[in-house]
Amino acid sequence: MAATTTALLLARSKGVLALAWPLSLNSPQASPCIPFRNVLRLQRASVAAQPSRTHASANATPLCAGDAPTPDAESLADEGDYEWLKRSRPIRIHARLLRPKGNLIGSSKVTKIVHFQRHGQGTHNELYRQWTERTGEPPDLSEPDPRKNPMMRDDVVDAPLTEKGRRQCEEQRSTAAGLDGIELVVSSPLARTLQTAHCTFEDHLPYNAQREVKWMAHEGVREELGQLLCNKRRPLSETEFEFPEVDYTHMPYEEDDVVWNNHVEKTSKGDGIPKRETTVDMSHRAYQFLVGFLHKRPEREIAVVGHSAWLFAMTNAVLDAGDDESLIRPMFKQAELRSMELIFLER
Are 128 and 150 in contact (CB under 8 A)? Predict the structure, then answer.
């Protein structure tokens, strides 16, 4: 078994993230460690030096507040019945791709410009690709046995970027640098999205930007909850230490991944196996994030870095894009940046 499997190791030595390879399932030869660029100058920081953080603000929007059902509640619509679901919500979110030099069609009171980005290639993406290449078919992601589903292995928890993923994000940096109206960057709290945000939007970090740009982590943007361990968050203290420029006060202040653990506990009754979050249930989270958090923010232009399944749920089961198939249908590619105008209209 040791000859055919490998470990994904996160080495954080002297504040520098390194990914230890290989990921290959059929080659025992190791490649050298690939350092992730230390954009935060973590050598100057230490866990002890970090100021203590208060609990989540009383004004922070809870993850499943309002009309969004809890993960174990029955979905309001069948999978695929997305139009009915969008019509059932009290606020419609009209969206269109923002073309270069395009004119806004909504008033400033109800309109946000949001630059959505999917993270670059993660170690779990590469492991999935290599598994498929070796076996001739993709792994069954519903399979709880880690010998049959590599996303169930302990060494893929909170999967970081690969070297390819880092390059993908750096290739987007020049585009992101030209988005000089950004006032807020929001990221999922998982490692690969925070790394993606820091690579792509490096010119908007507090010590680089010419004006104030806020950085926040938010649970509402994270990937599918449930079974796949690549989507489980590592201890919060490690994330805070690696990314000290980010504000975490809109997250539950828990060292362990309380959002993940609550979902597992609520959905694993009976057979003891947690259920994967559905697209409809992810859309409830996306809707609550957009309406309960983003819409209420004072910033007009915002960058949001998330995940493929979450972005699919948002574009297909939350946003009303009319006939714009280029906004809805295509899955976000790795590190893809897609700018949109969102118009929030109450019924």
Answer: yes
Torsional sign, CA 98, 325, 311, 168: negative
CA 168 to chain CA centroid, nearest Å: 16
Q: How large is the average pLDDT for residues 287-308?
A: 95
| Residue-level pLDDT at 80 | 61
- Per-residue DSSP letter, 330: S
Whole-model pTM: value is 0.77
CB 25 within 8 A of CB 130: yes
Is the Cα torsion angle 225, 227, 230, 235 positive or negative in sign?
positive
| Distance in angstroms (rounded) separating the CA atoms of residues 64 and 103 | 34
Which of 76, 77, 78, 116 has the alpha carbon at shortest distance from 95?
116
For 44, the token pair is: 């100057």
pLDDT on residue 100: 56
Q: Are the beta carbons of 77 and 85 closer than 8 angstroms?
A: yes
Q: Name the percent of the chain lying above pLDDT 90.
A: 50
The H or E element that residue 34 is part of is: strand 34-35
In which band, very low, low, confident or very high, does the pLDDT at 12 lie, cut at 50, 70 and 90? very low
**Taking residues 340-346, what's their average pLDDT?**
91
Q: Which residue has the tokens 């202040």?
A: 253
Phi, psi of 227 (to 5 degrees): -95, -40
Instruction: Give the C-alpha separation, 38 to 15, whole Å.
Output: 7
Q: Is the peptide bond before 22 cis (omega within 30 degrees of 0)?
A: yes
In sequence order, which residues have a C-beta less than 8 Å from that of residue 45 and are 6 or more positions away? 15, 241, 244
Q: How far is CA 1 from CA 125, 133, 198, in A?
A: 21, 18, 37
* Three-state SS at 230: helix
Class of residue 81 by CB neighbours under 10 A (exposed 0-12, middle 13-18, buried 19+) = middle
Sheet holding 301-306, edge to edge: 214-217, 184-187, 301-306, 111-118, 337-346, 91-97, 319-320
